[in-house]
Amino acid sequence: MFRRLIVASVLLFVAATAVAAPAQSFTIVGRNDLRFSQDHITVAPGQKVTIKLVNKSHLPASAMSHNWVLLKQGTDAGAFDNAARSAANNDYIPKSMSNRIIAHTAMVGGGHSDTVTFTAPKKTGDYEYICTFPGHFRAGMKGTLTVSSTN
């Protein structure tokens, strides 16, 4: 009986793994107009996701750097951005609110990029992503990652 239970469990695990959504990759450009090139992304629950953030700006990094920060549902993005202003020494990622982040890239200056890979939340719904370089979020540099089982 115990052996059958183990075999059934293994088969169930293999079947669940076989139908898992394939990994998805997105390249997002942080633009000088303080917008992301993609302001909406849709993925499946539990899907492996790779985000490559590219900054094509020719401005100095001190004037036009970008990051990509995916926040947990229910996070007040404005409050997060306010806290980020005093976190310059940590790429504008506030340590006091690190528990509100699902994933983020490093802060990248013009001509540079960074990549982050994470597992999408299992809970369906919308998750906000923002750039925390001072002034960028307030100017509109944000987007939505939608987790949907009907991709």
From TrEMBL:
Domain Blue (type 1) copper: start-end pairs: 29-147
Domain of life of the source: Bacteria
Record keywords, A-Z: Copper, Electron transport, Metal-binding, Signal, Transport
SUPFAM superfamilies (alphabetical): Cupredoxins
Signal peptide limits: 1-20
InterPro entries given in the database record: BlueCu_1 (IPR000923), BlueCu_1_BS (IPR028871), Cu-binding_ET (IPR050845), Cu_oxidase_CS (IPR033138), Cupredoxin (IPR008972)
Record-level Gene Ontology MF annotations: copper ion binding; electron transfer activity
Keyword Nucleotide-binding: no
PANTHER family named in the record: AURACYANIN-B, OUTER MEMBRANE PROTEIN H.8
Name used for this protein in its record: Azurin
Organism field: Salinisphaera hydrothermalis (strain C41B8)
